[in-house]
Amino acid sequence: MASKILMPNPSVNHVAYSASMVPRSRSIGQVCLPNKSTAETTASISQSLVASSITPTMSTKTLDKTSSTRTSTLAHMWREVQGCNNWAGLVEPLHPFLRQEIIRYGEFVTACYQAFDLDPNSKRYLTCKYGKKNLFREVGMGNPGYEVTKYIYATPDVNIPIQNEPPCGRWVGYVAVSSDDAVRRLGRRDIVITFRGTVTNPEWIANFMSSLTPAKLDHNNPRPDVKVESGFLSLYTSNESDDKFGLKSCREQLLSEVSRLLNRYKGEELSISLSGHSMGSSLALLLAYDIAELGLNRLGPNLDIPVTVFSFGGPRVGNLGFKERCEELGVRVLRIVNVNDPITKLPGVFLNENFRVLGGRYEFPWRCSCYAHVGVEIVLDFFNMQNPSCVHDLGSYISLLKCPKKGDQVRKDEQNIFIRARESILSRAQNTNMEPLRNAASNLVNLFQNV
C-alpha cells in the first residue's frame, strides 16, 4: 500500500508529518494524494484547468480557450469522475478534474453551515437564513449553475429536558439541480443533495447511539443482515408524529423530491450526487443506499442513473452487510478523510472491518456486528497544534485540497500525534513505576493508531 502524503495549507498553520510516520490503515480501497513529483505536475496542470488557479494576467482569449478545454473534457469523462470505474486511475495521483469536483461538492456542503441560523432570537432559528433563490448568492457562491428546489429537515428522535431548543425539525440541507447552461458544461443534468454536519445537542446525542439496527428501508425485502447505526437511522426516518400537520421524515422529504426531479427530467442524461460532512455524510450514504435499494435510479435491466456520495470526514454508517449491499447496488462512495480525524474512526473503534477475521482466514462469529466503511478513501494528513479541532473542520479539508503540496512549503515533524500521545502516557506511567500500566498504555495507543 502506498504511503499517505500530507497536503498542507500554509494559511492555517498546519504541522506536517513525514509519510513514513503516518499511522497505517487497513481500510479497503484506500488511496493517497500525489507525492512530491506528481504533485508538482498536477499543480501545473491544475493551473490551466481549475478556475481559481488561472493567472489573472492571462488574456480573455486564453481564458476562453482554457475554459472550453476544461468543459469539453469534463463533460466527456463525467461518468469516470462520478466513479463508474471506482475512480481507477484518477486518485493516485489525484486527477485535476476529480479534485475540482470534490472541492465543488465540498463547497455545496459549506453553504449549509453558512446558511444555518443558530441565533435563538431569530425567527429563522434552526432553519435556513435565506430563501431558496438567494441561498448561493447570500453565502458568497455567486451563481454555481444550480437551482435549489427543496429544503430538507430532520427531526432528532431525542428529547433533552434542560435544553432551550424546541423539539422540532432542524434544517439539515437542500436539494438542487443543475441549470441548462451547467448541463452543457457538466455533460449531464446533475441532481445534488447536500447535508451539513452535527450542530445541535440532539444531533450530537444521536451520533453516540452506536448500536446497530436493521435498516429495513425496503419493506418488500427487509434484509435483516443489512444493519446501520441506530442514531443515524433515527435522524433519517423520524418525523413530527405528535403533530398531524408536522414535518414528514427526512427520508420522505428526500425520496419525494428525488422522484419528482427524476420524473421531470426523464429522458435526459442524469446523475445523482450526494455530499455531506460528518453526520451529513452518514445521511448522504443512507439516502444513496435507499435510492438504489428501492430502484428509483433504475431505468432498465442494465441501465442505472449513477448514484455517487462525496463524503467529508464521515464516520462508519453500517455493518459489513450494509457495505456489501451498497457495492452490489452500485452505490459509489468517495471518502475524503484526515488520518488525524477521530470521527472517521467511529463508530466501531474495536469491532470494524479490520478485526473481523483472524490471521486473514477465520471469520469471527460476530462478523455481522462489525462496522465497515464503504467506498474508496482519499487520505489527507493535517493537524494544527494551536487549534486541534481543525482535524475535523470542513474548511481545513477544502483548503488542503485547494493547495496541493509543494516541497519547499512543507515543514515536516519527526513525530506524529499518536507517537507524541504515547510518549506522554508512557512518561506518566514511568513516574508511577507501574510496568503493567506502561504496557497497557503502549498497547492502547498502538491499537488506535491502526484502527
What CATH architecture of the largest domain do you see?
Answer: 3-Layer(aba) Sandwich
CATH superfamily of the largest domain: Alpha/Beta hydrolase fold, catalytic domain
> In angstroms, what separates the terminal alpha carbons?
16 Å
**Given the C-alpha coordinates, what overall shape results?**
globular
Integer average pLDDT: 77
Number of domains: 2
Question: Which structural class matches the secondary elements?
Answer: alpha/beta
Query: What percent of residues are in strands?
Result: 15-25%
Using the coordinates above, name the CATH class of the largest domain: Alpha Beta
- Low-confidence segments: 1-31, 34-69, 159-163, 357-362, 406-418, 444-451
How many helical stretches? Answer: 14
- As laid out across the biggest beta sheet, the strand order is 2-17-13-11-8-5-4-3
What is the name of the CATH topology of the largest domain?
Answer: Rossmann fold
Biggest sheet layout: 8 strands, mixed
Number of strands: 18
Q: Could you estimate the helical fraction of the residues in percent?
A: 25-40%
What Rg do the Cα atoms give? 22 Å
Protein name: Fungal lipase-type domain-containing protein
Catalytic activity: a 1,2-diacyl-3-O-[alpha-D-galactosyl-(1->6)-beta-D-galactosyl]-sn-glycerol + H2O = acyl-3-O-[alpha-D-galactosyl-(1->6)-beta-D-galactosyl]-sn-glycerol + a fatty acid + H(+)
Subcellular location: Plastid, Chloroplast
Keywords: Chloroplast, Hydrolase, Lipid degradation, Lipid metabolism, Plastid, Transit peptide
Features:
451 residues, alpha/beta, Rossmann fold, eight-stranded mixed β-sheet, two-stranded parallel sheet, 36% helix, disordered N terminus, galactolipase activity
